[in-house]
Design a protein that fits this description.
The chain has two domains: 1-71, no CATH class; 73-102. The protein contains four helices and four strands, in the order ββββαααα. β2 (16-25) and β3 (28-35) form a beta hairpin. The relative contact order is 0.12. Helix content is 44%, strand content 25%. It has helices at residues 45-49, 58-61, 63-71, 75-101; strands at residues 12-13, 16-25, 28-35, 40-44. Strands 1-2-3-4 form a four-stranded antiparallel beta sheet.
Length: 102
């Protein structure tokens, strides 16, 4: 059973604009895309629609973007990190109270 191809021609995904259909390979649709920097690439449609490919690679070469990517924390870990900080503060306060009692 063959799946249907979602027409992405003319759609924008980040810095990429889809120009035309390229081919189907291993049950994946590939599209010709042009980047805002002027480069032309072939990208898989599922990666475009999923937000995993948003440029030809020029975006990643930007030093500011690379710095932000290194400091980014997953939302699922933010709560755990916040809880660790509050636990450390509680332990520090308890240790200070014990010292005052001695």
């Amino acid at each position: 059973m063959a799946g249907t191809i979602i027409d992405l021609a003319g759609c924008r995904f980040g810095r990429l604009v889809v120009k035309e259909f390229e081919r189907i390979r291993n049950r994946h649709a590939y599209w010709h895309c042009s980047c805002d920097c002027g480069a032309v690439i072939v990208a898989r449609g599922s990666r475009l629609r999923g937000g995993r490919q948003v440029s030809c690679g020029c975006w990643r070469a930007n030093p500011e973007v690379r710095r932000q990517a290194r400091t980014r924390v997953a939302p699922s870990r933010r709560k755990a990190i916040a809880e660790m900080g509050s636990r450390a503060l509680r332990l520090k306060a308890a240790a200070a109270r014990i010292e005052r009692l001695e």
